[in-house]
Amino acid sequence: MDIGKLWWPVDGVAWKGLAYTVFILHFVFVCQLLLLQPLVSAYDGKAGNVAELLEKVERSVKVKRYSEAIDDLNAAIEADPTLSEAYFRKASILRQLCRYEESEKSYKKVLELKPRHSTADKELSQLHQAQSALDTAFTLFDSGDYKKSLEFVDKVVLVFSPACSKAKLLKVRLLLALRDYSAAISETGFILKEDENNLEALLLRGRAYYYLADHDVASKHYQKGLRLDPEHSELKKAYFGLKNLLKKTKSVEDNANKGKLRVAVEDYKAALALDPNHLAYNVNLHLGLCKVLVKLGRGKDALNSCTEALNIDGELLEALVQRGEARLLIEDWEGAVQDLRSAAEKSPQDMNIREALARAEKALKMSKRQDWYKILGLSKSASAAEIKRAYKKLALQWHPDKNVDNREEAEAKFRDIAAAYEVLGDDEKRARYDRGEDLEEMGMGGGGGGFNPFGGGGQQFTFHFDGGFPGGFGGFDGGFPGGGGGGFQFHF
């Protein structure tokens, strides 16, 4: 038998087994090399490998992949627990994320390995400042000092911890409390760019749009958040609160359009009570309520509602006009003229405003003249006969000869009584007076000053009473002494 022929088959099987074993070992080695490269690099301790690791970490931080960076650093520390640079970098990242307790431990480890590490010592001090500032900011927020709280967040916390999500969200809440809604939208935009599913950012951004009265966009943010977490209590409250407000507003509009003004008033009040802080929307509710109250003739309530609208937006022209109308209802003539004049200056081409201003000016002018009806104790609907009877009665009562002890008062009252009858006893003059025409056009003067029944310098003045005073006076039938027939005379 040829021994060589027997050897080769056995040798071939052995070589195949050997080759297979080598392949397996090589494969395992390559896998270890690929998966544990950071560990090997760190453990190796060479400056080049450490620099490469830190460069990789830096790239992760730049794209805000903080978890990946920390994982790499943890792997390096596990491979070499004495690698101070890995501890330092980890501490710095944790400080930026405001994970202060973890960060402090890493900084202390750096200082333990390298007691003279001045940068670590400095950053540890910054960590303490940021940590204290964040605690203070939350305390100030809870106490309502929003401006001061925002200063701590902006000038300390986000300077030393720029990646602190907790501080960023607190800043947004502070901006909302300060009613800087545009800034709140901007800040939440940055947060959602990093994490589009951040529920608190979606809620706060929705609120910012809500308080700008952009309800459609607000609703979309609430809905997206609820799709991610249907049981999120704050998102549910915000979403259904908005739906309720819009529903109530629709009811207001329907009742007002149908002429159900008293029901509309109650709906307006209910809508305003839902969120008193929703100024951008409530300004229109206050205005709508004012207009309905003006139509109902409730001037005082209308004045309050329009003033509320103007407190929110002092340039709201329609609120200024409606407040002028409300002032007319409560006979605040000067206030009405002031409001309507301001409105006319803002919109000089608006004829409706000019007409309302003319009415107010006329009412103010009429308010300053003598009220002849009031002097005679009559209403504006009094008949000619009633005017005559009232005049005779008052002239008799306040005749100076009958009021010797208070002659000056009697003369003044008698003068006004005579002036009142001079106007109201004449159908044409009375009509002109009722139309609000200027008394001076009648030759009377605003307070009867141009009409003196006593004349001047002892002149004689004669009043004529048809039939004299009924029943006579002082024993003289038909008139005072010195009178005759159908009239009487008196001299001063």
UniProtKB/TrEMBL annotation:
Domain J: 371-437
Matches recorded under InterPro entries: DnaJ_domain (IPR001623), DnaJ_domain_CS (IPR018253), J_dom_sf (IPR036869), TPR-like_helical_dom_sf (IPR011990), TPR_2 (IPR013105), TPR_rpt (IPR019734)
Key words, A-Z: Endoplasmic reticulum, Membrane, Repeat, Signal, TPR repeat, Transmembrane, Transmembrane helix
Endpoints of the signal sequence: none
Compartments it resides in: Endoplasmic reticulum lumen
Transmembrane stretches, start-end: 17-36
Residue ranges of TPR repeats: 84-117, 199-232
Primary subcellular site in the record, as a coarse category: endoplasmic reticulum
A family per Pfam: TPR_8
Coiled-coil features, chain-numbered ranges: none
GO annotation, cellular component aspect: endoplasmic reticulum lumen
Protein name (database record): J domain-containing protein
Organism field: Jatropha curcas (Barbados nut)
Organism placement in taxonomy: Eukaryota, Viridiplantae, Streptophyta, Embryophyta, Tracheophyta
